[in-house]
Amino acid sequence: MRSLRLKLSLLFMLVSLVAVLIVALWFNEVSEREFCLYCEHTCMMEGDNGEGDGQDCFSATMSGAREQAYLDALQHSLWQAALIAAMVAILLAFFFSRLITGPINSLKWSAQRIRDGDFAQRVKVQTEDELGELALTFNSMAEQLELRERGRKQLLADVAHELRTPLSIIQGNLEAWRDGVVAPTAESIAPVHEEAVTLARLITDLRDLSLAEAGQLSLHREPTNMQELVSSVLGSYSERAGTHGVALNFAPEAQLPPVDVDPGRVRQVLSNLLDNALRHTPRDGSIRVSLSAGPPEFLTISVEDDGAGIAAEDLPHVFEHFYKVDRSRERSRSGSGIGLAIVKQIVEAHGGQVRVVSTPGKGSSFSFTLPASHTESA
Q1: Fewest CB atoms within 10 Å of the CB: 12, 197, 250, 310?
Q2: How far apart are CA 121 and CA 113, in angstroms?
Q3: Beta-carbon count within 10 A of 20 CB
Q4: How far apart are the first and last CA of the chain?
Q5: Helix (H) / strand (E) containing 9
Q6: Going by DSSP bridges, is the β-strand pair 363-371/354-359 parallel, antiparallel, or unpaired?
């Protein structure tokens, strides 16, 4: 038997029939015994009154046609009631088994639709019991699968779009050199090299992002002095910030404990945040990097700028793949759109959290936490 409904129906019927049979046999035995006791008691009462022999009276009473007819009618009614109860039990068995298997079949059909690629499939929640909770859980799972599928398609489209631009530039210049339209000089080679570097960086970022989201991003943790690490990263950005007319300021707290992190990955996080800040900070603006203790067992690193800021409706999406606050910006100014997504994945892989606070027209503040090391700083 492969049908759950049939199994449940047979189970309900078996339980009901056994219960009816036990009740019928028990009532038949008890009714006959109690009837005999009643007749015996009646005859004994008559014998005590001098109206005859009690034993003869009992035999006569038990062999009487009316008494026997009464006992037979009682037993006949009992078995009729048992038969009716059995029929009702069979009907109720099919009814309740359908109540149980109906939602299960709906789940099965919806699961088959999702298996075939229809991620918009949902199950109607009909009850508030365990089956209703199962339906709610199934709908939540289906919603997550739909969001993931939508994100996967959007990611593929965005990757194709981001790869198309550098490849088109490289292809166009190569064709121009091949046809002799443009001579391969240092000036004409520079943009091709820049796009090749951009393409390599994008591919590396995509690889890191996929590894992080799959939980396979390798981290080589060690106690790290964050003051030295942040100062080193800022030193590599000082010339670039000066070219953009942006001031870099670093304000660490004194005597901070080391953090238990992968220094290379933390450099990547800081670099992505500084790249983002430099792209959105106007000339004569400033970027402030702060380093402080807290929350307990963590250090907090913040990167603040006084750029255009981020609108409230965009804040929940800034860490999504390829999300760009201002899609009208040219590509060189808006970046690839996965830097902040990588920041979030790397920070969370370390056990920290990242957050953003922004006021349109006044700037943005990106901060993240890293776990402190229990090893004393050298």
Answers
A1: 197
A2: 7
A3: 18
A4: 72
A5: helix 4-48
A6: antiparallel
Q: Is the pTM of this model over 0.70?
A: no
Residue 292, Cα to own-chain centre: how many angstroms? Answer: 33
Closest CA to 279 of 206, 342, 353, 363: 363
Which residues on adjacent β-strands are paired with residue 366?
303, 356
Of 53-62, 82-91, 192-201, 202-211, least confident by mean pLDDT is 53-62
Is residue 301 within 8 Å of residue 289, measured between CB atoms?
Answer: yes
- pLDDT number for residue 46: 58
What is the Cα–Cα distance from 368 to 347, expressed in whole angstroms? 7
| Residue at 17: amino acid letter | L
Q: Which amino acid is at 131?
A: L
3-state secondary structure of 83: helix
Q: Give bridge partners of residue 371 from the DSSP assignment.
A: 298
The pair phi, psi for residue 356, each rounded to 5°, is -135, 140
Helix locations, 116-262, DSSP H: 130-179, 186-213, 226-244
The residue that leads in pLDDT, 335 or 97, is 97
User: How many angstroms separate the CA atoms of 167 and 179, rounded?
Assistant: 18
Residue 331 has pLDDT above 60, yes or no: no
Structure token digits, residue 22: 């036990």
Q: Would you place residue 373 in the very low, low, confident or very high pLDDT band (cuts 50, 70, 90)?
A: confident
Give the pLDDT confidence score for residue 332 in this predicted structure. 45
What angle separates helix 65-115 from helix 54-62, to the nearest 10 degrees?
50
Round to whole Å and give the CA distance between 189 and 100. 71
DSSP 276-344: HHHHHSPTT-EEEEEEEE-STTEEEEEEEE-SS---TTTGGGTTSTT--S-TTS-HHHH--S-HHHHHH
